[in-house]
Design brief:
The complex is a heterodimer of chains A (about 210) and B (about 260). Chain A has 6 helices and 16 strands. Chain A has about 210 residues and is of the alpha/beta class. Chain A has a single domain, classed as Rossmann fold, CATH 3.40.50.880. The radius of gyration of chain A is 16 Å and the shape is globular. Chain B has a single domain, classed as Aldolase class I (TIM Barrel, Alpha-Beta Barrel). In chain B, about 35% of the residues lie in helices and about 25% in strands. Chain B contains 10 helices and 13 strands. Chain B has helices at about 30-40, 55-70, 85-95, 105-110, 110-120, 160-170, 190-200, 215-220, 230-235, 240-250; strands spanning about 5-15, 15, 20, 30, 45-50, 75-80, 100, 125-135, 145-150, 155-160, 175-180, 205, 225-230. In chain B, strands 1-5-6-7-8-11-12-13 form an 8-stranded parallel barrel, surrounded by 7 helices. Chain B has a two-stranded antiparallel sheet with strand order 3-4. The model of chain B has no long low-confidence stretch (mean pLDDT about 95). The chains are: A alpha/beta (about 210), B alpha/beta (about 260). The interface of A and B includes residues 116 and 145 of A.
């Protein structure tokens, strides 16, 4: 059973609908006992880092996530869920969960590419250049694009956790992976076929990085 | 690098498409969910639903449509028309829409942009702007005026000022419709689009006037638009979305090619 962590951060139902579509059973819960019983955990999120962390702490879900990461259960971060697994976010100057060393930064103003100014948020479809293979991203063609919408981006300290990078005026880490954790800045649940394939792969994954 | 988005727009009344859409094998369909599926499969990057239902019963039907669309397509979609308050926004978003767009309501009550952005995040709030070209004046220095109620009522508000103001209020995107170009199929209003897009920091979707793939090429380059809204040219199957994307790709305008 897949569990989607419910911490009042935006609309979790789009992830649920995508799981429904690929025929995967799931629960949406903030109950740590039910989360303990799940085989896989998805940590989504839309909204601001400050409020998200406050909600997590109130339900002690930050501690639960740390424990889950240590125990080796397959864990997927999406969008804000990816940003706040780092140690710190520039958004609302928020101290975050810290599963992975590094911080979440705001895109600099006045980004541009070949003379055209780039907008913030980074909203739309963009590609990911994968640095190595990973079971959760197998069968995803290099030309696939994914749906992004964000003004902040993950900046892990260690190069070794960067699984994929994306170019938006600057090159940023759009997918990170370490041990039983995969986390992506884009929304697999809104990224058409490649996104659904990532969710399928995740549900079949045992949590090993090879 | 980010792709330019191609976004078909579907008008819905009482849960049905207002104009039938030519489907596979030239069959006319009136079901917005099936139309959304067709465009999703053709490679639409996003879909805009515009609800022109007048009655409140019809609103419930629209929520049901949104729910069924959300179970069928796995790309973002927005719903506009008839969004009057936070509760309307909440219903549409909870039913599965990624974004809501506000147009006339935002002009009469700009606060709704801020309230929506605080409740759901800026990325959920699209400002729809209907714009008409007018004489440059002290009141309308850009020469483009905001009109509401489907283009019938002039507001005395300058379009450029309003776009910047909406960004400050918390809008995450602008859908910019030229009333002059709308329905002509003779091309987007390039001057207007470029002026607005270059003066805000949020993405701008160009709307009104698309008839040929070259119109999209123009508005995504000269017009500086981040995305282009299309309607008749795909509804009547004059072009498929994949044909339009191929045309753009051949001209080195990056779009998402289907996997």
């Amino acid at each position: 059973m897949i569990a989607i962590i419910d911490y009042k951060a935006g609309n979790l139902t789009s992830v649920a609908r995508a799981l429904q579509n690929i025929g995967q059973d799931f629960i949406i819960t903030d109950d740590t006992k039910k989360l303990d019983a799940a085989s896989h955990v998805i940590f989504p999120g839309v909204g601001a880092a400050g409020e998200a962390m406050a909600n997590l702490q109130q339900k002690k879900l930050d501690d639960w996530l740390k424990q889950c990461f240590l125990e080796g259960k397959p864990l997927m971060g999406i969008c804000l869920g990816t940003q706040i697994i780092l140690e710190y976010s520039e958004e609302n100057q928020t101290r975050c969960i810290g599963l992975v060393a590094g911080s979440t930064k705001r895109f600099p103003d006045n980004l541009s590419t070949s003379g055209q100014n780039l907008k913030i948020p980074h909203m739309g479809w963009n590609s990911v250049e994968f640095q190595r293979q990973h079971p959760v991203f197998q069968d995803i063609p290099a030309s696939a694009e994914f749906y992004f919408v964000h003004s902040y981006y993950p900046a892990p300290s260690r190069e070794s956790v960067v699984l994929g990078v994306t170019d938006y005026g600057i090159e940023f880490c759009s997918v990170l992976a370490v041990k039983n954790l995969v986390a992506m800045q884009f929304h697999p649940e809104k990224s058409g076929n490649p996104g659904l394939q990532i969710l399928r792969n995740f549900c079949a994954w045992r949590g090993n990085d090879i | 690098m980010i792709s330019k988005r191609i976004i078909p727009c579907l008008d819905v009344r009482d849960g049905k498409l207002t104009k039938g859409i030519k489907f596979k094998g030239n069959v006319d369909i009136g079901d917005p969910v099936e139309a959304a599926r067709e465009y999703y499969e053709q490679g639409a990057d996003e879909i805009v639903f515009y609800d022109i239902t007048a009655s409140s019963d019809g609103r419930d039907i629209m929520i049901d449509v949104v729910d069924r669309v959300a179970k069928t397509i796995f790309i973002p979609f927005s719903v506009g028309g008839g969004i009057r308050n936070l509760e309307d926004m909440r219903r549409v978003i909870m039913a599965g829409a990624e974004k809501v767009s506000v147009n006339s309501t935002a002009v009469t009550n700009p606060e709704i942009i801020t309230q929506g952005a605080q409740a759901f995040g800026s990325q959920c709030i699209v400002l729809g702007m209907d714009v008409k070209k007018v004489e440059i004046s002290a009141v309308i220095p850009s020469g483009y005026e905001i009109v509401i109620h489907g283009g019938r009522k002039f507001t005395g508000i300058d379009a450029l000022w309003w776009a910047r103001e909406a960004e400050k209020l918390g809008a995450g995107e602008i859908c910019l419709n030229s009333i002059d170009a709308d329905g002509t199929q003779e091309g987007y209003e390039l001057n207007l689009t470029a002026m607005i897009s270059q003066n805000v920091h949020i993405p701008v979707i160009a709307s009104g006037g698309a008839g040929l793939p070259e119109h999209l090429a123009e508005v995504l380059t000269t017009g500086k638009a981040d995305a282009a809204l299309i309607a008749s040219m795909v509804h009547y199957r004059t072009y498929t979305i994949s044909q339009i994307k191929q045309y753009l790709q051949d001209r080195e305008i990056k779009t998402r090619m289907l996997w």
